[in-house]
Design a protein that fits this description.
109 residues; globular; mainly beta; two-stranded antiparallel ribbon; 9 strands
């Protein structure tokens, strides 16, 4: 996981890497989404539990007392797919990661 310099739990002036991390969304509702494998796109339904993917792009906003998150990621573990695209709203989240190590790859000169 990459923690940006602006993250409250990163004491460094630059982004740093941790080992694998986990983000838990509480009271999530999938508003829209699709699983992408090759040329196939399968709608993602609200009962799917999505695990083990790398977030490549995201956008988060806070509206009406809840968070709205748009995600695009790859290497989806469950359910199986190459990529995932979804919009989720949720009440709160918890980010978990281990000790921070090296400076993030995009911070290195």
């Amino acid at each position: 996981m990459e923690l940006l310099a602006s993250h409250p739990d990163n004491p460094f002036e630059k982004a740093h890497q941790s080992g694998p991390g986990r983000i838990i969304l509480y009271d999530p509702v999938i508003e829209d989404g699709e699983l992408i494998t090759g040329d196939d796109q399968t709608p993602l339904v609200s009962f799917h539990e999505v695990r083990d993917f790398e977030v490549l792009e995201f956008n988060e906003a806070f509206r009406g007392g809840r968070f709205e998150l748009s995600l695009f990621g790859d290497s989806v573990g469950e359910p199986k797919a190459d990529f995932i695209k979804m919009k989720v709203n949720y009440s709160s989240s918890k980010v978990m990661f281990d000790e921070l190590g090296e400076i993030s790859w995009f911070e290195k000169e």
